[in-house]
Design brief:
Layout (H helix, E strand, L loop, with lengths): L8 H13 L2 H8 L3 H15 L4 E4 L2 E4 L1 H26 L4 E7 L1 H18 L3 E7 L13 E4 L8 E4 L4 E6 L1 H6 L11 E4 L9 H8 L14 E5 L2 H9 L4 E5 L4 H5 L4 E2 L5 E2 L5 E4 L7 H14 L1
Parallel strand pairs: 3-4, 3-5, 8-9, 8-10
Antiparallel strand pairs: 1-2, 5-13, 6-13, 7-10, 7-11, 7-12
Length: 300
């Protein structure tokens, strides 16, 4: 005869009740079953075990040797099950929020802030996905995005704050820059990025440098290496390898820590403004709205 790995749970409960009460009728009263139903469950368990588990006598019911060996195992097993489900009910329900963002903002701004938010709100789990293609929140599994563009039709979108483009460098590089033509005094660092989010040195130069014959042409600038990611470029900039063109949020923390400084006073408004965008369903979830509001406050 082929058995399942475990006998039915109701048979095990009947086994413990009969062992404790030493009487089928009283065991039935404890379980809310008839004496016949209890007898049926015990017979089914004995059939499954392949051996008698109780001795029946006019004076009462006692465990056989096999039943006595089994009893502590069953008792401990059911106790463990009860404890496990009780613990499960006591655990707070954890809400999951899925957020999509760009690699640059994910590594430089959003990622470092997630740990602090989860410390403040421990009953939320946040899953961050990065990529160069903005997800369509109307069809994707993401709840929200933090992206350098507003959301589309039918989505709830908020600007994070004013993004500006400017040049940064390590403090020791800043001290070596001349008062004039500082842009030509150190290598200009670049990163590959995506066509939509990469920062363009020549475009920035055309926006902030006046049309003055006394100013050196952009073509005379020296370019350093092109790094695979924005994070690698910023790491090189911190090490004093040259100048980096950045957006406000991408270097906020590094400037706060004094690892980078603004190299020049010239600033250009960025064409790409970061927005927090929620899907229609997520906009109705309080935990998602609370997280979006916190991000807006963090951005100032």
């Amino acid at each position: 005869m082929v058995h399942d790995l475990l006998p039915p749970l109701q048979c095990l409960r009947a086994f413990l009740a009969v062992a404790e009460q030493r009487n089928f009728t009283r065991a039935g009263e404890v379980l809310g079953l008839t004496q016949t139903a209890v007898s049926h469950q015990i017979a089914k368990l004995e059939d499954w075990a392949g051996t008698p588990l109780f001795r029946r006598a006019p004076s009462g019911v006692t465990l056989t040797a096999a039943g006595a060996r089994l009893h502590p195992q069953v008792e401990a097993g059911l106790a463990a099950l009860r404890a496990g489900f009780a613990e499960l009910r006591e655990e707070p329900e954890v809400a999951e929020i899925s957020v999509a963002t760009t690699p640059e903002l994910g590594t430089q701004w959003l990622g470092p802030r997630l740990e602090r938010y989860l410390t403040l709100v421990p009953d939320v789990r946040i899953r961050m996905g990065v990529g160069h293609r903005r997800p369509d929140l109307r069809t994707s599994s993401d709840d929200m995005s933090v992206w350098p563009a507003p959301g589309g039709r039918g989505l709830v979108s908020y600007p994070l704050g004013l993004e500006e483009e400017f040049v940064v460098c390590a403090p020791e590089v800043s001290e070596r820059l001349p008062e004039r033509h500082g842009l030509w005094a150190a290598p200009l660092l670049r990163h590959a990025g995506s066509r939509q989010t990469v920062l363009d040195w020549e475009r920035w130069y055309d926006q902030v440098v006046p049309d003055d014959p006394r100013v050196l042409p952009f073509e005379d600038c020296t370019f350093g290496p092109t790094y695979e990611t924005f994070a690698e470029m910023i790491a090189a900039c911190i090490e004093g390898e040259g100048l980096a063109l950045v957006r406000t949020s991408l270097v906020h923390d590094e400037i706060e820590r004094g690892r980078l400084v603004r190299a020049f006073s010239e600033i250009a408004p960025s064409d790409l403004q970061y927005h927090v965008t929620l899907s229609p369903e997520a906009a109705r979830r309080p935990e998602v709205v609370a997280f979006a509001d916190w991000l807006r406050r963090e951005a100032g």
